[in-house]
Predict the structure.
Amino acid sequence: MVYEGIGYMVSTEQIRQHDFVLSLLSYSHKDWEATLQRATQDPSVLMSPDCIRSIDHIIKINQRVAQSTGRSYIAYLSQIFSPLIQVYKHYSSWISQAQQSGGASEHLVRPMKTVRRDILKLIQTYIEKETDFDYFNQNFLPTLQAMVEDYQ
């Protein structure tokens, strides 16, 4: 994938890696922001199969960039972490409600579960590349503990 290849080139740069990561993800970030803006106006947008696919695609791009750039990815993860968690929680809530009511639409539940799994994979990918966990533990870990409990 193009993003992964460019990410490896960015990882070889000794200076301004964070800036390069932000530039690399600028196009997918515009899609991310547009999706979040639509969801703010109408939360049901997140239930659209096209929206679910779009979110998952953006997350997978981020996984590849996190894999290839390593700890420099924190510059971008810091920007999207809160909305990412909100999407995760929204889908978790909807999946739980759909399963409890017995009206679980498999064509929506399965992709939502995929998005949740891919969000966790993205964070796992970053953690595997991180070498200094002070910032991560302080800013992300408390939220992640609640998320992982929900995932189980």
Observations:
- The mean pLDDT is 85.
- Residues 2-151 form one domain.
